[in-house]
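Section handout, structural biology tutorial.
Before the tutorial, make sure you can parse a SMILES string by hand: atoms, branches in parentheses, ring closures as digits. In the record below the ligand is zinc ion, and the chain has 344 residues. In the tutorial you will relate the predicted structure tokens back to the input. Do not try to memorize them.
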Amino acid sequence: MNTTARDLRSREEKRLAAKADTRPRVTLSFYRYVQIANPEAFRQRLLDKWNSFDCMGRIYVAHEGINAQMNVPKVYWNEFDTWIQSQPELSGIPYKIAVEEGDAPSFFKLTVKVKEKIVADGLDDTSFDVTNTGQYLTAEEMNEYVNDPDAVIVDMRNAYESEVGKFEGAITPNVETFRDELKKTPELLRIHKDKKIALYCTGGIRCEKASAWLKHNGFKDVRHLKGGIIDYAHQVKEKGLPSTFKGKNFVFDERLGERISDEIISKCHLCKKNPSDTHYHCKNQICHTLFIGCDQCVEKKDGYCSWVCKQVDKLPENTKKVLARYYNIYIRKRQPFKKTRLAN
Ligand SMILES: [Zn+2]
Ligand SMILES: [Zn+2]
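Predicted structure of the complex:
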């Protein structure tokens, strides 16, 4: 399935085509802070090559580096890796490979976007030393931290991510964006200023910035989990360590989560009763809210987050188009649970 730079097929057509392509794929993520002189040209280089390997995913490039979440058909893996190693900006970049190899595709198209920054953190990078990052922690060291009363574990992810999985005893700030997380954490951790601080996130990229930011805010002993939860899960498996991470690792692709341990730590948002950590997007495209649902509720509500969404979805397309403008304001007010939409 070779596609040109601009793919005009509808979302549904792409999803169907991706599903029909049953070749086994490696899902991976990687990032690097590296000077990229011409992000536009770099973007084109990635698109040309990765389209030829039928890769899919979501990649951000900026002058400051690259942040990629993608999949590669196994048949092209060696060629893909060889090409990566031949690129000066990418050579030796650590891959974080997904644990689960489900049958559902992780992505169904390839997008490479040029951005101002590879992670939206809202910080002015000239106002502090971004290279003064914390030391890394291995999985073993993270486990020691979890069991150490003099250590504080901080989840640098958003509330909807920590809701389904987190390290035992971790502080999980109730925020919806990484910007808010960075605003909130220095104040939140003030009482722990003299303790050892361990940060973690999905794949490690957010902690690079967050550790430097906390050090700038006067915290002395700040470390972060190398390669994030994704790499932690690999190390735990390889070395036969106990997992102090409970539940699911939320991921930003079609799978929405990777199971790390058997515990289910969250409840269905609809009945607020049954344990569940399965995320869904509301079937009503103009709502598309992310919610946790149990099997019974999802079946009863037919994949919609609410009765209203189901009724609205029956309206003619034109009416829906007009409604779409106002719908989210309306639905945010009347929904019983917090509305979350993933930044894409
Ligand atoms: Zn339920
Ligand atoms: Zn809905």
